[in-house]
């Protein structure tokens, strides 16, 4: 390889690999640098993909245990092979990481394994334990992502006090687990382990699960997760977590301001993630990080150094794979002189519990805080023929609509396949289609998406029609 590039991407997560591919498609000579042995970053290796693999496996097991009998399917001696449960997840990750190697080759992107650190504005050093390689580039895209963070009094030792990463690769099924944080990671991993019989407690600081989403979603999720026997403690503040050798003990102040102590096999810390810039040597190019650790960028996602851009979890905004991907495409196109656009208000947020939770646009809380007038259209899945057929009647669709013009301001769903149903709502909001017009398009019957149709109709001032 001659080490001179038009664009060099540092980090191969969904932000990095998408930007590299888009830049290559646009005709640039591209390199990508990744410090780990596999490509794909957090999402592919220890995030979205393995978490979803375990969510699917555990949901199958739970269904087989709890619901198959109702369908007339009898299984004798049902059991879980935990080793195979984890092995399948690892195989799914392997397929995805090898797929990325293929994509890099196909797009003629040079891959450098090692830690990238800046020498100056046009050069980086890629270091491994035994060698250093210098790369020169006209542009750099920093896509170094994030790492789990913790809270005062809780030191992650990766043995008993763990992060999501360790929880995806246990060697045997934990008997019990305390999860600090009832955000996205907390509720997804609580679902995985509760479904296979682990006694799970979630300790959440605020008064709701998934507190950044529309509050009604968190309330319904509380009820559905409680059905899995997950012990959910809200308004509770963790003070400390201690590795006692064979278990972890967590001390916290509960919702009645009383000191409490709980012990479990593991304590999983899921209180958010922090931007990761260690080893980049940003000082060499004069880029400073904000107090939060994030790299500051302008609207073009450009740092204070004009040829250096940053995308994904390492900059402001929701820490989501599709947000990182959108920014990857955006930056490659900006460098190419195009005028791309990202509508940050409509980036969907999805939680892969069952039922799933999906949201896009403004929440009721946000509209109230801004004094924006809105009407609510709501349809419960208990009234959906499709949901009754599949015994997935928990949840609802809620659409928030401006009464003046019929503009859809927000869509919030908790229900079966909400992650897929939300896509149509995003298209509608992006192109400012009114609630009435969203109602007038055809929805296949019976589908989960029909619940949206009725919610749009109600928000437009009419009663529901379908079942
Ligand atoms: P990352 O994916 O973090 O990739 C950064 C890469 O840069 C890493 O591979 C790192 O090794 C590399 N790197 C760092 N520094 C250097 C350096 N100096 N030199 C070379 N390489 C370097 N999001 C969703 O949208 N949907 C989900 O379902 C979802 N599930 C998740 C489940 C879990 C358990 C977790 C932890 C996260 C999940 N996320 C999900 C969030 C998602 O993983 C992140 O938002 C996404 O990976 C961010 O992408 P990125 O490209 O910015 O960074
Ligand atoms: P999060 O911000 O979603 O949730 C953290 C939770 O911890 C919050 O509810 C917060 O109130 C709580 N908390 C904070 N301090 C606490 C304390 N002292 N005691 C008790 N609770 C406390 O963060 P996360 O769940 O760690 O996820 C990290 C990131 O990964 C998120 O930004 C998320 O977007 C991303 N992620 C996304 C998905 C998905 O898209 N499905 C899945 C997993 C992770």
From TrEMBL:
It is an enzyme of class 1 (oxidoreductase). The active site is at 445 (proton acceptor). Binds 1 FAD per subunit. It catalyses: N(6)-[(R)-dihydrolipoyl]-L-lysyl-[protein] + NAD(+) = N(6)-[(R)-lipoyl]-L-lysyl-[protein] + NADH + H(+). FAD binds at residues 52, 116, 144-146, 313, 319-322. Belongs to the class-I pyridine nucleotide-disulfide oxidoreductase family. Disulfide bonds join 43-48. Its EC number is 1.8.1.4. It comes from the Bacteria. One of its GO terms (cellular component) is cytoplasm. NAD(+) binds at residues 181-188, 204, 272. This is Dihydrolipoyl dehydrogenase.
